[in-house]
Structures are given as C-alpha cells and as structure tokens.
Amino acid sequence: MFNRDKWNEVIESLTSNLFRTILTAFGVFWGIFILVILLAAGNGLENGVKQIFDGISSNSMFMWSQTVSKSYNGLPKGRRYNFELNDVAEIKREVNGLKYVSPRNQLGGFGGDNNVVRGLKSGAFNVYGDYPDIQFQEPMKILKGRFLNQNDIENKRKVAVIGEGVIKGLYDFDEDPIGTYVKVQGVNFMVIGVYKKRGLGGGNAEEDQKQIYVPFTAYSQAFNMGQTVGWMAITAEDNNSITKLKSQVFDIIKRNHNIAPEDDRAIGNFDLFEQYSKVSGLFIALNAVAYFVGILILLSGVIGISNIMLIVVKERTNEIGVRRALGATPWQIRGQVLFESVFLTIIAGMTGIIFATGVLAIVNALLPKGADIPFANPSVDLVTVIIALSILIVSGLLAGFIPAQNAIRVKPVDALRTE
C-alpha cells in the first residue's frame, strides 16, 4: 500500500518539469483518444446498418425463375419456366428448418403504367399477391386496420393493405381509406389496412410506401395466374442458416421442372443472410483495424514516457544512491519508478477517454434522430473501457520497465559521487 510520502514523491517528480510531463503525456492521451473514437465510429456504423435491417428477417432468401442455361432430358436450353404452388408445398414438406415459405406474385411498379385507379385519380404502384406470413419477413407497421389473414386467403377475399405513398397518390388530405375501394386493372379491392414500411431502402424510402398487398388467392383468380408463382420469400428458423438450406430448395425446383442438377443459373436468388453475414464480418475487421491503429499510436506515446522516465532516473541518480545507501532494496527502487510510469500513463489515458466521451456526446446530440443514414449512436461499452484501462496499465509497466532496470543497476557509491 502506498503512503502519503510516496504519493508526494510521485507528484513532486512529475511536476518538477510540468511542461515536459504534459508533452510526454500527450502521446498517451492522443493514442487512447484515437482508439476510443475509432471503436465508437465502428459501433456507430454497425448500429446504423442494424437499424436499417431492423425488423427484417435477415435469415431469408428471395428466389425467382430464370432462363434454363443447359439442355436436360430432351428439353432445350434457353427455355423459360415458372414456379408453381406445388413447388411451395414440396419445399415446406421436404426441407426441414424452414420457418416461412411465402409464394408471391407481382404486378406493375415504379416506371410502369398506371395500374391502380380510385375515382379520378390513378397511379403506378407495386401490387403483390401474398400470404399473411410476408408481414413477418418484411418490416412493416400497420398504422390502421389490419393485415391479410388466413380467412382472406381461403375465401379469396378481394381486400387490400396499402402504403402511405398510395394514400398520398389516390386520397385527399385527412381522408380515411379504410373501407374504400381501389381498382387494380379493373378489379375492385376493399382497403382493410394501412402500413408504413421499413427496410433496406430506408425507413421512409418513397417506393417502399407505394405498395399494395392483396391475398395471393384473390390475386391469382383476378388476374388469371392459376397455380403460377412469380417468386418466393423463404425464411429459415433461427437455429438454421438459409445459406445452408437453399441448395435443398434448389434441388426440388430443378427436379420438378426438369432442370439439369448443375444448372445454377436457372434459379435466381438473393441471400439476405449471406449479405448480412458479410456486413457483420466487415465490422469485426473494422474493430480489429481500430485496435491496431489505436495501439500503434498509443505505443508511440508509451515510448515517449519510457524516454522521459530514463531522463528522470538519470536526473535522480544521486537520490537513488542515497536511498540505496540508507537500505532501500532494488524492488523498492524499481517499484517507485514503475509506479510513477503507470500513474502518468493512466492519468493521460483517462483524460483521453474523458475527452473522447465528450466528443461522442456532442456527435450524438448533433445526429438527426430517426434519420435514414447508416450511422447511429457512436459509443463504446464498458468492456471496451476496461480493455482500454488494461492497455494503459500494461503500457505504463512497459514504459517504466527499462528505466526501472537502469535505476537498480546504479551502485550506491557511484551514485553518491555524481553531481
């Protein structure tokens, strides 16, 4: 345990040349400051991306049919085919580990002809024929009414859930859309719900709000789709990876449609889980780079402290000789030098952490709340602070080790002869 005299000696030693001490400590201050800021920036990017993915079933895959690129069983290459409802049933039955398999059909969209009419107003909107499970695969909030349910599917009800963008295009200000009708290519659908969508395009992306959801069965009947499925949204259970299961799904499609087993180009897919995993791996790499760069900068500050402690030991050679002559052990001399080094390092480092925390608080205050940017809440957790403190302590010991060794090599008689 350190007594008051020892503390007074440390403070006197470090303040005897205050300007030199401050310049030396600045290297450690700057190193830990940069380390915390880099780690916080990495966390801010990760939080922003997770905010964009919020509500999305990231363990999902979207799959559609493409042109067959290889001839097989007497059938030519270059032919087109469509998914069918029996494909969906077989995928659900034969592939274990899937949570949702949602067949989908789509009509119209951005840049297309006006396909939806209400009164004298019309617009071009994406119209989806869906099952109720799609609400668990895409992030949306029901603002009014309800979403599609199984009764709508079984009874082929001509009902629709519309987005805020559809309301702006087809309705007057403050008009309640629930219970009204919209006409999709001549077929009337009653509005039963209003949603606000969030997703990869951003929480308020305009096109995300210009969509209409109707029951898959009613869509198929109204637009003569029969058993045809345009594409599928497939989600795996939490303890499974869709990336590992999708090959089984592809095998069923190839078998049902006489597609060569090695023809991977015949089925298009977007593996959201695979993309999300790549992004997560990127953040791990960014944190590793932040630690690497921060520790290198911190190391330069530690070298500065080690150099200044060597000078301090040289200046106190006479004092060390007196203490050795009075019976001070090598461990006491070494401990004093190491303690001064660790103390200076921790003070400089904690000041860097405090300044970095202040900068992060200002940045968080200036960031717009709820903005659709891939950067949110840059911060560091308690574990990071503990790691930083551990680095500081180890750095202080390293900085003081060589000066401490030099100090105990001083012979009392030689030290007493120095001026």
UniProtKB/TrEMBL annotation:
Gene Ontology CC entries for this record: plasma membrane
Molecular-function GO term, any one: transmembrane transporter activity
Family annotation (Pfam families): FtsX, MacB_PCD
Membrane-protein topology: Multi-pass membrane protein
Residue ranges that the Swiss-Prot or TrEMBL entry lists as coiled coil: none
InterPro entries, A to Z: ABC3_permease_C (IPR003838), MacB_PCD (IPR025857), Macrolide_Exporter_MacB (IPR050250)
Residue span, ABC3 transporter permease C-terminal domain: 292-411
Transmembrane segment boundaries: 21-41, 288-313, 342-362, 382-402
Subcellular location: Cell membrane
Keywords of the record: Cell membrane, Membrane, Transmembrane, Transmembrane helix
Residue ranges occupied by any MacB-like periplasmic core domain in the UniProt entry: 21-249
Record PANTHER family: ABC TRANSPORTER PERMEASE YTRF (PTHR30572:SF4), MEMBRANE COMPONENT OF TRANSPORTER-RELATED (PTHR30572)
Family label: Belongs to the ABC-4 integral membrane protein family.
Name assigned to this protein: Macrolide efflux ABC-type transporter, permease protein MacB PCD superfamily
